[in-house]
Fold these 2 entries.
Entry 1:
Amino acid sequence: MNKRASSARSTRHGIETPLLTVDPVLFTYHEKSLKVLLVHRSSGPEEGRWGLPGGIVDIDMDDDIEATARRKLVEKTSVQPPYLDQLETIGNRARDPRGWSVTVCYTALIGHQACARHVDTVSDVRWVELGAAGRMKLAFDHREIIDIARERLRQRALYSISPGYALDEEFTLAELQHLHELLIGKTIQKRSFRRRIEQADLLIDTGKKRREGGRPAALYRLKPASSGYRFVRNLEAP
Amino acid sequence: MNKRASSARSTRHGIETPLLTVDPVLFTYHEKSLKVLLVHRSSGPEEGRWGLPGGIVDIDMDDDIEATARRKLVEKTSVQPPYLDQLETIGNRARDPRGWSVTVCYTALIGHQACARHVDTVSDVRWVELGAAGRMKLAFDHREIIDIARERLRQRALYSISPGYALDEEFTLAELQHLHELLIGKTIQKRSFRRRIEQADLLIDTGKKRREGGRPAALYRLKPASSGYRFVRNLEAP
DNA sequence: CCAATAGTGTCTATCAGACATTATCTA
DNA sequence: TAGATAATGTCTGATAGACACTATTGG
């Protein structure tokens, strides 16, 4: 068998295993648009490009794969995201020029306030608006991974309110609805949106109001169980 | 750092990567029950136990991870399943007594006829009824993986007809409905079930009939696009 | 004819879509 | 008061649940 240029690790047991990485796609909602966290690669492969805040699974530090995802996200944002969901695992010999490699991808969501301060102080970590990210030449297959995460999030917006984890802890229904509209790609009837959320009892009314422009809007918070809830009936796809 | 007993591979680059395996959970529907394909482990770790028809990713043979899943399934059944869907990746230092390991799991479906002959001739591969599998002491965390696959399939039964790939190529609506009832765990109104399938136009009427007992039943075949279809409204969960 | 299974008619309940109306704030 | 945004009333349409009914086979 011919020897390939490869990132694969060799062993005395005669089994070569590919390089194993984790790539979380961390989204947030800010200024009426969806943003994704990108990191500038100042060394190593794909140097100079921007990419996902991922890294290699460290079997000494990490008890499981999700721990790797959390570790990398904390490294880049200084906080744990309230939503972290395994997305898909991509492994082949084409995605990394060094050879066969595998990445376990995650979708993560966080409010913008929670990590704005830290991200703003660091120059190699940035929130990039989703459209702009799509036009950048990113490292490896990170562009495709972002597309997959975005599509999954679109589906979630049709039958759950888990996208709400991309909002700050307290938010208005208008904000939550607009985020869903962004994800789904079409406007939603305000009545439909509010009805289903009220009936499913997924939010806590903080009692506080936010005022800007017209009538003050009630501020809500997500109930802990809300990420698992699934509506029986979906919103209409665009 | 203390040296652990580990299945991890070492390298001259100083990166240790865990053992990488693939574990497909292949279901079929036969004699009014759901069965899962198990393989007897006659050597290696967990010797003597039954487990999933998985194996180690071979970076020489396999172009991508899904290819590994297909290869292992063909090895055990001699045929390619018509449905193969990535499930979840589990990786931690506890699941394999040898140390840190990772498995990329798949849900696969196939009709019983398609592989009955081959499976019957081999003694170390067996279809096991799902309840019975739950009572066996399986290798590694394969019991949990089967549970996860089963739960995913239950969800699919609520909003799609992809479970139909567990039927033979030609099947009756009664068979498809009963399979869904098994998965969901409750009876479905015949009218509801037929209506949604007819409206979504997911099946091809072969024109043939199957007769047994009463009035002959029409035989259908899945349309190629049917696995991706998603009903806007779910069946009620139990 | 009866038993058995396949397939349909039809009513109700639920909930998303549509859109008008009312409520509560600031300037 | 006007303008803006939040929140609600209410009608329609689509579709799942319930269940009775008809259809087609074998014996």
Entry 2:
Amino acid sequence: MWIHLSNESKEPLYKQLKVQIKQQIIDGTLAGDTELPSIRALAKSIQTSVITVKRAYSELEQEEFIYTRAGRGTFVKSTDKSILQEKAEQQFEEEANKLFHLGGSLGLTLDEMVTIIHRLKEENNE
Amino acid sequence: MWIHLSNESKEPLYKQLKVQIKQQIIDGTLAGDTELPSIRALAKSIQTSVITVKRAYSELEQEEFIYTRAGRGTFVKSTDKSILQEKAEQQFEEEANKLFHLGGSLGLTLDEMVTIIHRLKEENNE
Amino acid sequence: MWIHLSNESKEPLYKQLKVQIKQQIIDGTLAGDTELPSIRALAKSIQTSVITVKRAYSELEQEEFIYTRAGRGTFVKSTDKSILQEKAEQQFEEEANKLFHLGGSLGLTLDEMVTIIHRLKEENNE
Amino acid sequence: MWIHLSNESKEPLYKQLKVQIKQQIIDGTLAGDTELPSIRALAKSIQTSVITVKRAYSELEQEEFIYTRAGRGTFVKSTDKSILQEKAEQQFEEEANKLFHLGGSLGLTLDEMVTIIHRLKEENNE
DNA sequence: GTGGTCTAGACCACG
DNA sequence: GTGGTCTAGACCACG
């Protein structure tokens, strides 16, 4: 499992860790029932504390991406592709809504925002 | 000047304040060279701490929306509409690009993202 | 606020704390918008660590009993009596279902279980 | 002897094992003086650790459901049906009393609790 | 002052 | 070995 944490990012370490694992589950790199590294092994390999890893794992468990069993380990929950897609879209929607709010507070109209988004899409598409 | 801070919002108070002043400058409610209330007066009137107002003002000054003259007060910088619009768009673009990155890391295609955005636009439009 | 933690209980401290606060919200002792003690003050008064209190508060926030705002404090969420009642019933149901499972694995029939429960009810009623 | 341990269950493996053996004794599948598999044989057949089986056996022995004879093996204790029934009821009662306490702390009345229990019984009955 | 996060080290139950 | 919990102390942003 590839994890890269940045100490310079404003994001807390546990959140960076959480996002990276989540993404690997969503894109299929981590398949259902795969055993994740133990919290201690992972903490050591990314040079952070046990509690930080534990927190990332706990939140992922609560969002039903993984499950942990005391004394046994931590595993990727096997989930339908369609459910993963739905979760991805939900998360995206939340952030997109924040963007609309930001645009509004900046005095942009919805049309202006969508125009900008289309332009960015084209640029990203190249 | 109308300001309303919500204690229930997750946004820090200083940011709520900053956004509200910024928006009033952008939409023309606060015209160029208008004098803003003193830090102490504003803090008192919106029942918050001096530090909170100070921070909002100093970030607005740094972003060149306002300027302060020691001993005289704080004023709205007179700026071309077009420059304000440009600033707004720049800030929006930055955040929109982050959103595209998030979507990508979630495994969504650009088309899926734009589709979701259009749907949200319609919902916000109602 | 009255809190009593037992070191002898098998229940983790953070859970004991959580349950006791939750109960006081449900029974109305802690009304909506009441400010809870700061995590540090509470940690000190019950002689536990900041992180333990934080964890209890976080889980209560996630279950929407309270809300915390960085730099401002932690507050009881104002909630309809009826919603509190509903939450109480849900929690009770979960545990009651576990009891039925236990009874089943012990070879008791549903009727036997309900009979026992009625007898206990009478005893508790006296 | 049929045993099925689930790695996905939150119950510790030793407890799952214990409950399943106990139930088979209570329902008569395992009659008095039946010899149970050796610890090692059972551990191998259900693919778990020796320690897990050992712990289940020793707790069952302590609760007087089975007995071990060094060098000879482990056997089901022959017990009156009525005594088994009584044990089952006692254990159930203990847990039911905890449930009443929980309900009380959640502000539910005894009548409300019994009403919920009846509803759950009907649902489980279907 | 407030909450948010993190570390380093500890002890426990379970396997 | 595994996860679960806890402590004591630290530094940060926010007010």
